[in-house]
Amino acid sequence: MRIGILLAALAMSAVQGFPQSKPQTGTPAEMILTVADHTSHKPAALKPDDVRIVNATITDWQPLTASGDLELYLLIDDAANYDFTSKLKELRQFVADQPASVPIGIAYIHDGALQLAQSPTTDRTNVSGALRVPSGSKAANPYCALSDLIEQWPKKSLRREIVVVTTGIDDTTRGAVCVNAETTIRTAERAGVEIFALYNPMANNASETWSSKVGSGVTDLAHVCYETGGEAYFQGHSAMDLLYPYLSDIAEHLAHQYLVKFRLSGATGSGFQSVYVSSVSPNVEIMAPESVWIPLPKK
Known about the structure:
Helix content is 29%, strand content 28%. The chain is α/β, with parallel strands linked by helices. It has 2 domains: 85 residues, no CATH class; 185 residues, 3-Layer(aba) Sandwich (Rossmann fold). It is globular, with a radius of gyration of 23 Å.
């Protein structure tokens, strides 16, 4: 009897000495974070303790490499054909520089409509062959094509990224607009797609009175990119002499990304939830989407 009492007491002591872990609370979500360094271009490795997500608890953290589980699309606006011969060479070099395992697709925007030229493939010859100088078209809303591309893109990889070269002009005088920048942001955030944009004007930009439209266009481009966790590149209304420094910056971003899983407290039901991400260190810049999509819970 005494032995039985002693064993029972030891068992109770063991349970009290090793308490069970608390059940996780909050709504599960995930997103891609990018650590950037626009000064030295040597981003430091990011750790979970370096990041704050308001009203959230990080549950999983996975560093991603430039070649790890990534698909990339280059989307070129046929209206953005100013001085493009040298830029075409830069885009082909960018393609050649990407890790061999990364599938790359090519698509165009013509009069605002999406035209798929090459589905994502690791065959660099096919990708390079699908790249061409923009054929020229009237400036039109680029966001219909962006949204269409995202919606038609099967999710085969953890990361899907779009690099778009466009005038950014939304010429609403040409008829009904299918979507706008805000709609594209929601489409991209729901799909977990990041967008990077490079501004290039029309060939006849000097003879057109596009000033106000270009201004609002690049503002919308920046809005779309930053809210999806990407970045926009432009120099006022002027064409950039070279694309490659900015393409290199994009490649640097793709090589310094993390998959972050977390639980949001206070989030209820499905839908978009705003996320507020910051760095513990003031010297570390973190790029992140402004909202994440919470799907319906699985039954």
